[in-house]
Amino acid sequence: MPAVAGVFVVLIMMHSNLLAQNEIKSDKTSAVKKQPRTALLMKQSERINQKFDKFFEKPNPKVATWIALVPGLGQIYNKKYWKLPIVYAGFAATGYFAFSNRDYYIDYREAYICKIELEDECEDPLAQAYSANDLLSLRDYYRRNMELSFIIMAAWYVLQILDATVDAHLYYWQIDEETTLSVQPAIDPTAFTGNSITGQPPGSKKAFNGVTVSLRF
Length: 217
Prior knowledge:
The protein has helices spanning 2-57, 61-67, 73-77, 84-118, 125-129, 132-170, 190-193, and strands at residues 180-186, 210-216.
């Protein structure tokens, strides 16, 4: 019996050792399997960060143009944050005039229609205060102002896109010490004193006086 008990204990110990070894192998296997996935995610995140940094490092004119379709994003992409108040102030001003003139246009148009259709029975305050001709003139006046304001707003929208595109182009234009801009007056003295070589009398030659601008780079 003691011998049988000893054998039984030995078998239990061997079984426990096998279980421990299997657990260690499974842990190593899971660690090996998890390590490539973690490394892959880290590499992907590094690539995304590099692309993100490269995207904002040097402005691309094409990217700046497409981003500028949303007002202000082109200026942010070019890192010209000080232009944002100017961009949005232009839209705020043109939008205010456009919609305020639109409201006046609708009011005077409805008053004119009421004045023409109902004549003296019209209860519109504007129709009672103005004649039909005055209402027609005021309606056309505010309609022109409304249309002009919307046109200016559209032009401002295009202008901020051009600003972002040109700004991105100018990023690659380097100015060194050799780049000079000179402005000088251009005066032709023969236009007043005459030319002794050709024998032209004074004042017979047209004056070509002005300013010359020269850019050297």
